[in-house]
Amino acid sequence: MDKPQKILVAMSGGIDSSAVCLQLLDAGYEVVGMTMRVWDLPRQFAHAVQETATDGAQPALPPCPHGRVSIDAEPDFVLKARALAERLGIVHHVVDVRSEFHDTVARYFVDEYVQGRTPNPCVLCNRLFKFRLMQETADRLGCERMATGHYVRTEERDGHTYLLMGDDVRKDQSYFLWRVPQPVLRRCLFPLGRMEKPAVRDYLRSKGFPLCARQGESMEVCFVEGDYRDFLCSYDPDLAERVQGGWFVDTGGKRLGVHRGVPFYTVGQRKGLGIALGQPAYVLRLNAAKNTVVLGSEADLQCRHFLVEAPEVVCAEEFFTNSNLSVRVRYHSRPVRATVQALDDGRLLVSTQESVSAVTPGQSAVFYEGRRLVGGAIIASQRGLGAILEKVRE
To answer: Which of 21, 125, 188, 212 is catalytic?
Structure first.
């Protein structure tokens, strides 16, 4: 009898990765679990609060400097993943990369805001941490394949591995995976790609895991609890003082009032500006060098042309000749038809058939052909776009 194929599963202790473990065991794989510990938040230690309370009170845990709680404990998600592994009889490993994560992904997150850009930490983490660590751990443990609970699928085509949108459009996570390298994708399985969330919950209940099936889920940045501005000030205590006192300006440069500092605003923001102009105002642009925040109307946020940088495409020959491209400029946005033109400086000029709103430097522009992901790029500063459009039209 052939030995079962060994597969490494990224276990978060949540619904999706738990369902993946069960499905792969049912399919005859030898499953090995891996849980990544990148950051500690107080809410992840509910068990520790209960264990340390002596008078019925719920004492508050101390803050988490550099992503570490000041108690000798493991977070709930690690304990849940380990408990599931023990129940299923599979080996489980914890990879602790908190220090490295603090110095790279968290640092990038803060630096992008300081530079007037809006970061996309999940995209960076998937490339530099989650899938890299999975590959390294799989190699070390002799696992041929890897699996996660992402709602996506893969397709082999003409020697390339393409990501496909998950069948559950509301849960599709392909947008966050565009920077995962081809050699890694070739080894990955995504068992939930053809399932919808209610079906995953039903499956867990049918396998005897009703509590797991009822778990909630978080769609927020995993290392930020509450307002991202509080995180910035916690990570860099001198930040607010350094950047305070810049100007709100209109599209003509007229000063409208004083703001808190560029890092505390994002393109498209309307609420919480701290300024009254007698009509709704939106953040249009951020200039970190001048510490100015440009305000305008909702109509001013619309555009049909924008610049992107650092593109990565699956097949360049097909990408730049593809007449059926569409682009998403944020996770929850729907794809809109687009064309792409390569510029001499390595950037791309993206033109859409219909207007898109609040194109935000630092975020990802992800390109599709139908449901197939064919490339992605980082939305660049739009400074100089007008001159580029004039040149292209000549």
So the answer is: 125
